[in-house]
Amino acid sequence: MRKFFLGFVIAVFVVLGAGFLCVRFGLMDPRADIPVNSFERRIAMPSLDAAVDRRAPEVRNPVQPTNANLIAGMKVYQTNCASCHGDIHRPHGTLADALYPRAPQFVEDAPDMPENQNFYIIQHGIRLSGMPAWKQVLNEREMWQVTGFLSHMDKLPPQVSDAWKAVAGSSPNENSSSGASRMDMKDKNSMKMPMQ
Ligand code: HEC
After folding, report:
1. Distance (Å) from CA 61 to ligand 1 centroid
2. Residue 122 in domain
3. Domain-located, residue 59
4. How far is the CA of 184 from the centre of ligand 1 (A)?
5. pLDDT digits (tens, 9 = 90+) for 40-72
C-alpha cells in the first residue's frame, strides 16, 4: 500500500513537472491565430461559465431598456466592442479570428447569459483572453447600458437598429475606427514628408 501511494505521488509530480517544463521552455504555441484546440474549448468554456456563475453578484440591471438607453448602450458597444464582437454591418468582427480564445460574435449568435453575469464579465474582463476589464474605461451606468444592449441585440426596436446602422457606418468597409486609423497614417506620412 505504501509503495502504491509513493508511486502515485511520484506520478503526480512527474506529470506536473512535465507540464511546467512544456510551459516554461516554450513548447506551448503562443500564436493567437491558430485553430482553437477542441480539448481547451471543452474544458475552458464550462470552466469560465461555472466561475462567472459562482462569482457574479445577483443584481438586476438598474437601467431600463428604453430606446434612449439602448441607443446609449449601442454607442458604447460600437466604440469599444464591435471590432472584436462584430456589428450590424460586420456580423463577424474584424478581430474575430485574431484572438485565442476567439471572441464570441454577438450578432451571429446573440448572448444568452443572464445580465448580472454579462455585467460581471464586462466589468472585470477575462484573464488570459483578449477581453478587457471595462471598469477601467466605462462608468457603471455605461456598463449597464451596454449589458442591456447585448440582451436586446436580437430584438432591437427599429429605431435602435436604424441608429445602429447609421453609427456603424454605411458600408462594411467603412467604420469610424478604421477611418480614423487611415487618417492617422495619412497625417503621419504628410508630417514626415517635409522632413525627408
Ligand atoms: C480586444 C477584443 C475584445 C474587445 C474590444 C471586447 N471583447 Fe468581449 N470578449 C473578447 C474575448 C476574446 C472573449 C472570450 C473570452 C473567453 O472565451 O475566454 C470575450 C467575451 C465577452 C463576453 C462573454 C461572452 C460569453 O458568452 O461568454 C462578454 C459579455 C463580452 N465579451 C462583452 C464585451 C463588451 C460589452 C465589450 C465592449 C465594452 C467587449 N466585450 C470588448 C474580446 C473582446
Report:
1. 19
2. yes
3. no
4. 26
5. 889 988 999 999 999 999 999 999 999 999 999
